Amino acid sequence: MRQGSKTLVAALVALLLAFGLAACGGDDDSDTTTTETAQEQNADGKGSAGANGDGGSDDGRAPGGQDESTPGEPAGSFKPKQHDDSGGGSEQFRVKGGDNSVQEFGEEASEGEFEAAAVALHNFLDARADGHWAAACEYLAGDITESLEKLAEQAKQIEATGCPTLLGKLTNPAAKQDLKKEARRANVGSLRVEGDRSFVIYRGLEGTILALPMKEEDGEWKVAGLAGTPLN
After folding, report:
1. Stretch 77-87: mean pLDDT
2. pTM above 0.90, yes or no
Protein backbone atom coordinates (compact mmCIF):
# COMPACT_ATOMS: atom_id res chain seq x y z
CA MET A 1 0.00 0.00 0.00
CA ARG A 2 1.30 3.45 -0.88
CA GLN A 3 2.19 5.78 1.95
CA GLY A 4 -0.49 8.19 0.77
CA SER A 5 -3.14 5.47 1.04
CA LYS A 6 -2.00 4.69 4.58
CA THR A 7 -2.33 8.36 5.43
CA LEU A 8 -5.87 8.38 4.02
CA VAL A 9 -6.89 5.40 6.14
CA ALA A 10 -5.36 7.04 9.21
CA ALA A 11 -7.29 10.23 8.49
CA LEU A 12 -10.55 8.32 8.28
CA VAL A 13 -9.84 6.51 11.53
CA ALA A 14 -9.09 9.88 13.13
CA LEU A 15 -12.71 10.80 12.44
CA LEU A 16 -13.71 9.29 15.75
CA LEU A 17 -11.16 11.44 17.57
CA ALA A 18 -12.11 14.70 15.89
CA PHE A 19 -15.34 15.43 17.77
CA GLY A 20 -15.25 18.29 20.23
CA LEU A 21 -11.92 19.65 18.99
CA ALA A 22 -11.38 23.19 17.79
CA ALA A 23 -10.58 23.69 14.12
CA CYS A 24 -7.13 22.43 13.17
CA GLY A 25 -4.47 25.10 13.26
CA GLY A 26 -6.63 26.84 15.83
CA ASP A 27 -6.30 30.48 16.71
CA ASP A 28 -5.90 30.97 20.47
CA ASP A 29 -6.59 34.69 20.28
CA SER A 30 -10.25 34.80 21.26
CA ASP A 31 -10.13 38.60 21.56
CA THR A 32 -9.64 39.23 17.85
CA THR A 33 -12.11 41.90 16.80
CA THR A 34 -14.37 41.83 13.77
CA THR A 35 -12.40 44.71 12.28
CA GLU A 36 -9.08 42.88 12.72
CA THR A 37 -10.52 39.75 11.15
CA ALA A 38 -11.78 41.71 8.14
CA GLN A 39 -8.40 43.39 7.73
CA GLU A 40 -6.63 40.03 7.82
CA GLN A 41 -9.02 38.68 5.18
CA ASN A 42 -8.38 41.62 2.88
CA ALA A 43 -4.64 41.41 3.44
CA ASP A 44 -4.24 37.75 2.56
CA GLY A 45 -6.88 37.65 -0.17
CA LYS A 46 -8.56 34.56 1.27
CA GLY A 47 -11.90 36.12 2.15
CA SER A 48 -15.16 35.16 0.50
CA ALA A 49 -17.88 37.33 -0.90
CA GLY A 50 -20.39 37.97 1.86
CA ALA A 51 -18.32 36.06 4.41
CA ASN A 52 -18.57 38.77 7.04
CA GLY A 53 -22.13 39.80 6.34
CA ASP A 54 -23.72 36.40 5.69
CA GLY A 55 -21.71 34.03 7.85
CA GLY A 56 -23.86 34.29 10.96
CA SER A 57 -23.49 36.39 14.07
CA ASP A 58 -21.05 35.75 16.89
CA ASP A 59 -23.79 35.24 19.48
CA GLY A 60 -24.08 31.51 18.82
CA ARG A 61 -26.90 31.79 16.34
CA ALA A 62 -26.88 30.89 12.67
CA PRO A 63 -28.36 33.13 9.93
CA GLY A 64 -32.05 33.76 10.47
CA GLY A 65 -31.71 33.44 14.25
CA GLN A 66 -31.38 29.64 14.29
CA ASP A 67 -29.58 28.57 17.46
CA GLU A 68 -26.52 26.48 16.51
CA SER A 69 -27.30 23.92 19.20
CA THR A 70 -30.60 22.92 17.57
CA PRO A 71 -29.88 20.86 14.43
CA GLY A 72 -33.31 21.35 12.85
CA GLU A 73 -32.35 23.73 10.05
CA PRO A 74 -33.24 22.07 6.70
CA ALA A 75 -30.38 21.56 4.25
CA GLY A 76 -32.21 23.56 1.58
CA SER A 77 -32.07 26.74 3.66
CA PHE A 78 -28.26 26.83 3.53
CA LYS A 79 -26.96 29.49 1.13
CA PRO A 80 -23.45 28.69 -0.19
CA LYS A 81 -20.96 31.53 -0.10
CA GLN A 82 -18.50 32.55 -2.79
CA HIS A 83 -14.82 31.79 -2.12
CA ASP A 84 -11.70 32.60 -4.11
CA ASP A 85 -9.01 29.90 -4.03
CA SER A 86 -5.42 30.50 -5.09
CA GLY A 87 -4.78 27.00 -6.51
CA GLY A 88 -1.25 26.46 -7.77
CA GLY A 89 -0.85 22.73 -7.11
CA SER A 90 0.83 20.73 -4.37
CA GLU A 91 4.42 21.65 -5.27
CA GLN A 92 4.08 24.83 -3.20
CA PHE A 93 3.34 22.77 -0.09
CA ARG A 94 6.32 20.43 -0.24
CA VAL A 95 8.40 20.39 2.93
CA LYS A 96 12.13 20.05 2.39
CA GLY A 97 13.31 16.93 4.16
CA GLY A 98 9.79 16.28 5.47
CA ASP A 99 7.02 13.79 4.86
CA ASN A 100 5.49 14.74 1.51
CA SER A 101 3.33 11.65 1.08
CA VAL A 102 0.14 13.68 0.72
CA GLN A 103 1.74 16.29 -1.55
CA GLU A 104 2.96 13.42 -3.79
CA PHE A 105 -0.18 11.29 -3.52
CA GLY A 106 -1.56 10.27 -6.93
CA GLU A 107 -1.71 13.10 -9.46
CA GLU A 108 -2.83 16.71 -9.55
CA ALA A 109 -6.54 16.85 -10.35
CA SER A 110 -8.02 18.52 -13.39
CA GLU A 111 -9.26 22.08 -13.08
CA GLY A 112 -12.87 20.92 -13.06
CA GLU A 113 -12.25 18.36 -10.31
CA PHE A 114 -10.31 20.92 -8.29
CA GLU A 115 -13.10 23.49 -8.46
CA ALA A 116 -15.83 20.98 -7.60
CA ALA A 117 -13.91 19.58 -4.63
CA ALA A 118 -13.05 23.08 -3.39
CA VAL A 119 -16.73 24.08 -3.48
CA ALA A 120 -17.68 20.96 -1.50
CA LEU A 121 -15.04 21.71 1.13
CA HIS A 122 -16.05 25.35 1.49
CA ASN A 123 -19.74 24.48 1.68
CA PHE A 124 -19.08 21.93 4.41
CA LEU A 125 -16.93 24.33 6.44
CA ASP A 126 -19.44 27.18 6.00
CA ALA A 127 -22.46 25.01 6.89
CA ARG A 128 -20.73 23.60 9.97
CA ALA A 129 -19.58 27.04 11.12
CA ASP A 130 -23.12 28.43 10.75
CA GLY A 131 -24.75 25.50 12.53
CA HIS A 132 -26.53 24.20 9.43
CA TRP A 133 -25.99 20.59 10.44
CA ALA A 134 -28.26 19.03 7.81
CA ALA A 135 -26.45 20.94 5.07
CA ALA A 136 -23.06 20.01 6.51
CA CYS A 137 -24.06 16.34 6.42
CA GLU A 138 -25.05 16.71 2.76
CA TYR A 139 -21.40 17.45 1.95
CA LEU A 140 -20.02 14.52 3.97
CA ALA A 141 -19.14 11.21 2.32
CA GLY A 142 -21.53 8.34 3.01
CA ASP A 143 -19.05 6.27 4.99
CA ILE A 144 -18.42 9.23 7.30
CA THR A 145 -22.12 9.71 8.08
CA GLU A 146 -22.37 5.96 8.65
CA SER A 147 -19.44 6.16 11.07
CA LEU A 148 -21.23 8.92 12.95
CA GLU A 149 -24.33 6.80 13.33
CA LYS A 150 -22.35 3.74 14.42
CA LEU A 151 -20.51 5.89 16.96
CA ALA A 152 -23.86 6.96 18.41
CA GLU A 153 -25.00 3.35 18.65
CA GLN A 154 -21.84 2.37 20.55
CA ALA A 155 -21.76 5.41 22.83
CA LYS A 156 -24.79 4.95 25.06
CA GLN A 157 -24.36 8.40 26.59
CA ILE A 158 -25.14 10.01 23.20
CA GLU A 159 -28.92 10.23 23.00
CA ALA A 160 -29.14 11.24 19.35
CA THR A 161 -29.59 9.63 15.96
CA GLY A 162 -29.03 10.80 12.41
CA CYS A 163 -26.08 12.76 11.07
CA PRO A 164 -27.46 16.31 11.57
CA THR A 165 -28.40 15.76 15.19
CA LEU A 166 -25.18 13.92 15.97
CA LEU A 167 -22.99 16.51 14.30
CA GLY A 168 -24.70 19.27 16.25
CA LYS A 169 -24.40 17.45 19.57
CA LEU A 170 -20.78 16.38 19.08
CA THR A 171 -19.37 19.72 17.92
CA ASN A 172 -17.86 21.61 20.83
CA PRO A 173 -19.63 24.99 21.21
CA ALA A 174 -16.35 26.45 22.49
CA ALA A 175 -14.86 25.88 19.02
CA LYS A 176 -17.48 28.08 17.32
CA GLN A 177 -15.23 31.09 16.74
CA ASP A 178 -12.37 28.99 15.36
CA LEU A 179 -14.77 27.13 13.05
CA LYS A 180 -16.04 30.43 11.69
CA LYS A 181 -12.50 31.75 11.18
CA GLU A 182 -11.40 28.53 9.47
CA ALA A 183 -14.40 28.66 7.13
CA ARG A 184 -13.67 32.27 6.18
CA ARG A 185 -9.94 31.84 5.64
CA ALA A 186 -9.75 28.40 4.02
CA ASN A 187 -7.85 28.75 0.74
CA VAL A 188 -7.59 25.62 -1.42
CA GLY A 189 -4.34 25.14 -3.27
CA SER A 190 -4.38 21.56 -4.52
CA LEU A 191 -6.39 18.38 -5.05
CA ARG A 192 -4.38 15.16 -5.33
CA VAL A 193 -6.26 12.19 -6.81
CA GLU A 194 -5.56 8.47 -7.10
CA GLY A 195 -8.49 6.34 -8.20
CA ASP A 196 -11.48 7.07 -5.98
CA ARG A 197 -9.28 8.46 -3.20
CA SER A 198 -8.08 12.02 -2.95
CA PHE A 199 -6.79 14.78 -0.68
CA VAL A 200 -7.56 18.47 -0.81
CA ILE A 201 -4.73 20.67 0.49
CA TYR A 202 -5.63 24.10 1.81
CA ARG A 203 -4.38 26.94 4.00
CA GLY A 204 -6.13 27.29 7.32
CA LEU A 205 -5.68 29.47 10.38
CA GLU A 206 -2.31 31.09 11.10
CA GLY A 207 -0.91 29.86 7.79
CA THR A 208 -1.31 26.19 8.72
CA ILE A 209 -1.32 23.89 5.67
CA LEU A 210 -4.00 21.23 6.03
CA ALA A 211 -4.94 18.08 4.14
CA LEU A 212 -8.42 16.57 4.21
CA PRO A 213 -9.60 13.38 2.46
CA MET A 214 -12.20 13.86 -0.27
CA LYS A 215 -14.31 11.34 -2.13
CA GLU A 216 -16.33 11.39 -5.34
CA GLU A 217 -19.75 9.80 -4.94
CA ASP A 218 -22.21 9.58 -7.82
CA GLY A 219 -20.42 12.38 -9.66
CA GLU A 220 -20.34 14.72 -6.65
CA TRP A 221 -17.37 15.54 -4.43
CA LYS A 222 -17.81 14.88 -0.72
CA VAL A 223 -15.72 15.61 2.35
CA ALA A 224 -14.33 12.37 3.81
CA GLY A 225 -13.24 13.66 7.22
CA LEU A 226 -14.17 16.18 9.90
CA ALA A 227 -10.82 17.83 10.54
CA GLY A 228 -7.82 18.62 8.37
CA THR A 229 -4.40 17.15 9.20
CA PRO A 230 -1.55 19.71 9.42
CA LEU A 231 1.24 19.22 6.88
CA ASN A 232 3.62 21.89 8.18
Report:
1. 90
2. no
